[in-house]
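Format notes (please read before filing issues)

Several people have asked whether sequences and structure tokens are stored in separate files. They are not. Every record keeps both together, in the order shown below: the sequence lines, then the token lines. Line labels are part of the format and must not be stripped during preprocessing.
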Amino acid sequence: MTSAPARYLDLHLLHTLPYANLNRDDLGSPKSVVYGGKERARVSSQCWKRAVRLEVEQRLADPAVRTRRLTKQIAEDLHTSHQWPQELAGLAGRAVAASAELGIDKAGLTVLVYLPRAAIAELVQVCLGHRDALEQALTAQDKTSEKQEDGKPKGGKGNKRDKAVDLAEVLPRKQIVELITSRNSSTALFGRMLAEVPGSKVDGAVQVAHAFTTHATEIEVDFFTAVDDLNPADLTGGGHLSQNEFTTGVFYRYASINLTDLTTNLNGDAAHALSVTEAFLDTFCTAMPQAKKNSTAPFTVPDLAYLAVRADRPVSLAAAFEKPVSPASGTGGFGAPSRQGLATYATQVNTLLGTQTLPFAGHAALQQETLDGLGQRHASFGELIGAALAAAAPEAR
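Then the structure lines:
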């Protein structure tokens, strides 16, 4: 191995999940995929990424918000926390959206925006600082409505009234746009695409693959009843009858983080980028989607984490399981053959590509088996991640 400048941290996990349905399709069934000619259970990248994002934000105390209710949230904050009349607060929320040209539908919702939670508080402060202008706009709207009532067409409320007064000019447009397009750890990590606001795009530094089982799976149907506690003793029927679908298996999970891109997204703050990367990698090992948690409690931890630092490009090892794994001979179970399959495939890939651009490879696992091809063994996920970060950015550790 060499000390070539590192950019990508590839994290591969093998994660055994018990009877669960972490991610449902449109019919409530566990998501699936056909890979290698066999059906596998699947958890979408969006599902697991949301669980990771929320936990990273909590760990870093730097939350972001993805919402269509920006105008409503601003109006609610102004009304409940600052005692603004509801009509004025509502106009303020719409004025914020108009300044950024977000557009508002009939339900009062904008397109989906993704911004630091702190930016919403700052938008509220901007409204507070321009209350006079907002009140004048509201008065102008009222006068317009009165004129329209004297004439034939009645203006009404909402969008029609807003068109009578140019709300986009009431608040400082540049300041509003800067706040809506501002970044924090979360947006720098996961990226943002907001076509309505030029300059708001952030290329995400993280790529997350859909998780899938290393072996063929079948969906299990669970028929259940709910007992009516107040039924007479001689009435034995259930109060509710239904069925749910679940699956089990060993899932291959993969994510890659581009440390260089993340540092750029964080305005060159290398120390912050390392902290965010550490939080992401650690959380990717532990965060779990929450679907059906009350009835399945599927909170296992990964059996194996393999972490590789690469200087050239990310490398997924999903193809290790294109041929579905068979149960271990004699003892059964998919865990051991999955771990050996990953180790064998990683060895083959590293032989094929060479290790000149692989400054670090290591693993941490529950089991004590030897896993040649996955680098040095570490005692814990934290120790593994720390060693990888030291190799990726030795000048910053």
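For reference, the curators noted about this record: Residues 262 and 268 are 8 Å apart (CA to CA). The first strand starts at residue 8 and ends at 20.
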